[in-house]
Fold these 2 entries.
Entry 1:
Amino acid sequence: MSAASRITTCVRLNLRVQQRSGFIQILLGLALVLVVVVRLGLPETLWPLLVPTMLLVEYGAVGLTLVAAMQYLESNEKSAAALAVSPLESTEHVAAMLLAPALVGTVAGLGIQAGLIGLDARVLLLLPPLLVTCVLAGAAGLWVACYYREFTRFILGVIPIVALIQLPLLSLYGLTPRFTWLWHPADAALYSFTNLTEASPSLLAWAGYLALLVGFCTLGFRQVHRVYCERILQRLGEST
Amino acid sequence: MIIEAEGLGYTYPGQPDPVIRSLDFQIEAGEVFGFLGPNGSGKTTTQKLLTRILPGYRGKVSIFGQDLRGQSAAFYNRVGVCFEFPNLYEKLTAEENLGFYAEFFDVATEEPRNVLERLDLPVGDRRPVSKWSKGMKMRLSLGRSLLNRPPLWFLDEPTTGQDPAHAVLIRQLIREKAELGTSIFLTTHNMTVADELCDRVAFLVDGEIRVLDAPRDLKLAHRSQLARVEYRNDSERVTRDFDLATQAEKNAFAELVRTREIETIHTQEPTLEDVFLRVTGRDLA
């Protein structure tokens, strides 16, 4: 079995556990509520500001909470110990932990797009930035969860990260110049969305952002894998 | 040789003293090797070292002829590990727990249904395993460690939480696997289990192996020729011990058997626990 197959199995396993725990239903329900509230209660002129905001909230909520929840579940049930003695490599396990909520976040994000501006072929351009931004948010969530096992401390730990993820909104609201956050991982999805609502997206900008995102993801993944091995697997060995 | 350990030692980070000092042992193919000792003696830590869960050990360990340090996770295609406590996805059903896990292997795996049946667990139960008893969860964890038909099987207190009937079932399963050639590393403080199942046992105390031998040889080496007789003397029950190593005692014993109404006769063979106590000076508690 290849690494890709093992990661796929682990992603399916994560999604099944999260679905049984009700996390996925809650997050997709949240997306639905956001769409309904915006469509029924807010003027369309505000949508270009509100929709990206909601998307970034979804990244934060989905990536951070789902990954952290999975990490806590696996630690409490000690099921992480079972995976540690399977042919699944720790890199594959961490990758699956990040990919599973990223898929949920992407579906939720696309649901928001489709619910508010309709399905369009250009939405496909949003898929990669949505996915990788969710992965990055998940990596941040896992990183914090590796350090803080207690819920309150975890929440306190993720607040600055959620704030960091949403920094590009400052440009959207005209509080900082447009290109201030060009380097920011979440800016890609935001910029793609802004293009999507206008005439046509700039493919070059999109590709550039995507490359930036992949770079961020690689760095984020390496960092969070190191922390996971040091703080979770080592602890697992000492306590199992 | 399936496992070879030379000078194996380990100190937990932040601890001044090593929990495992310097272990030397070998395990052959098809052997059931018992690792016995009181709580805190380092049995479980040794299993964690041999199963790659704890890195950073001292000394040399080779498994299947290869240095353990150089092994990747593919190592677990040939190894089964069952921990002392259940570690399952509690929100999933038993078949989901087994099914997902089986997909990680590169080797042919058992059918989850067969594993459940073999361990007297319900097939087709739609309840999450969180609703199961601890004994059932332990058997499910045990079954999961067998999914890949491992030639090397690590077991940590496998009969914990089992009622007597299921403890027998697990012992039968271990014996059956050993007969099929599986090497088994059995960590336990249950001397009855070890005596019944193990080809050789190592007594571990304070991170050191004090004795390593076959249970039968250990008992023979520490045997006494004491016989305890209970008999009736009129209406009174009397208990008397005879040291059969001396001729006078043998004669007295024979005389008693011939002239009295004997109720019971027991030779005082030492149990493995007695041997452990004598060798280590420590109780198993």
Entry 2:
Amino acid sequence: MDELKLYTYIAVFGSFGVYFAIAWWARAGSTSDFYVAGGGVTPLQNGMAIGADWMSAASFISMAGLIAFLGYGGSVFLMGWTGGYVLLAMLLAPYLRKHGKFTVPEFIFDRYYSKTARIVAVVCLIIASLTYIIGQMKGVGVAFSRFLEVDYGLGLGIGMMVVWVYAVLGGMKGITYTQIAQYCVLIFAYTIPAIFISLQLTGNPIPQLGLGSTLADGSGVYLLDKLDMVVTDLGFKEYTTDNMGGTLNMFAYTLSLMIGTAGLPHVIMRFFTVPSVKAARSSAGYALVFIALLYTVAPAVGAMARLNLMNTIEPTAGQNMVYAERPQWFKDWEKTGLLKFEDKNGDGKVQYVADAETNEMVKVDRDIMVLANPAIANLPNWVIALVAAGGLAAALSTAAGLLLAISSSISHDLMKGVLTPDLSEKAELRAGRIVMTIAILVSGYLGLNPPGFAAGTVALAFGLAASSIFPALMMGIFSKKMSGKAAIAGMCSGIGITMLYVFQHKGIMFIPGTSFLGGLEQNWFLGISPNAFGAVGALVNFAVAFGVCKLTGDAPAHIQHMVENFRVPKGAGEAHAH
Amino acid sequence: MESNQSYWQENLRLILICLVIWFVVSFGFGLLLVEPLNEIRIGGYKLGFWFAQQGSIYTFVGLVFWYSSKMNKLDKKHDVEEG
């Protein structure tokens, strides 16, 4: 076994051992433990757990790669996925915590006094969470197959088993404490390589500052200016100004991601675990600090990875790399099919340019940037091993949070709330565990046989959360008079228009060829891409809900009284079921 | 109840201030005004680009903590603290 593999085994299985130990220590004894960790999580702990819950395989692996190739356009992910926490901290978290229930659909049920509303919320939640989970499961499989060279399916199976142990045993309590450990692993694994690379390129160990510094090669040229120059010389768009489909599209995209972030149930749920309203407010702040640590490093990772890639292929202008002398990481990724070279002009050298006719790097998958980055920069093997453990931590922690959101919405909202209200606490706890086991098996199956629409699903998850859950919650808190009927009408029309738009441009259920308006940019409404349409869906939701409320009358007095009550912190207790 | 009303009004005003700042640093500086701001530079960063990829995130963090501490004071002032 070579050194890198040995280190990777130590890092991956060492971290798994820690998760198991925590799971054993934090077993759940009651439904309160299982759903909200007994309500005893401190804001700092909750902030870290939210960080791990939120930062998925997509944040860890894909985001910096996206930024590397989108440049300035990639800012929509940075602002969108952090700005949502401002909305969450001010518009939702404190009031939902004050109301003090276990799940998001349960709040919707109380506020809109309607089982229909609760079921609509459960359906949105399950679709959004399941689509999201497929990506995590794929991430686990890829990390295993690339770094440990085990079969994709076996890797997925190991990942499922690990999540099963701590999520089913510990519920929210086990998940919370493992997420804290996972946050530490993932942030360490993300920043260490970034610090090394920043130091190499600019001499500044802080990546956030390195990105704005001059290069360490003595030329005195700023890193970003050099990058702009290198990419425009090869015909690509300028890195720092390339604005992905125009300002309006970026605007709508950012807004959709922000609203969607604030409406994702597995994140909202984490605010039910803290002991007070005050703690809910401050844990949003801590969460954002922990998230910002990764999100402000990501643009540096992206830009530096792009520059390193360009420099490897063309060390000095006009002097291209000879294909036969390519480095080891290049060969490794060629094997996976994610990197492809075709010697079009037969000169044995690698030309990487924007023009598709002469470009010889026919495939550079964006997702390999973070994983390949340490190898491209010649970092020591233990750093590369860390990245594998970090990617797994990111995927597992998010999967666990999503699984809990799904299982609680089924065992608590559908079974206890609607179908079998006389379920005892013990039986509900058992039901929760069984549902979670089933959810793990289903998501594992979907990870192994990703449905054809998997690629488009993240857009759907954010679109659903943005166009249904967020507006319903926000109106429930800020508009006393908003009635149940109006909220249901709003949710249904918000989802309806968002799904219609996504499907009409990307195909019904993402089946190619069924898109009746075509995926082409010129057919987009005002140039807004389907991924960015959640914000429009949310606007429609608000408009319809207020319209229907005007026509059909206000919410009854006791509901308005309840709203007044959860607007003030006084009298908050632990989160409870009834 | 009287006090709860004015508590809620003050909270709404605070939220509005925060959301204006939230909007200005991200959608304003990072997107709508990015071109004129890019004329200004801090180190190797063009200012608009910096707001879009760094500055807006730092501001968000500050905003959430500021809101949280303001609200704690407001809770005390209107005597609506928990416990």
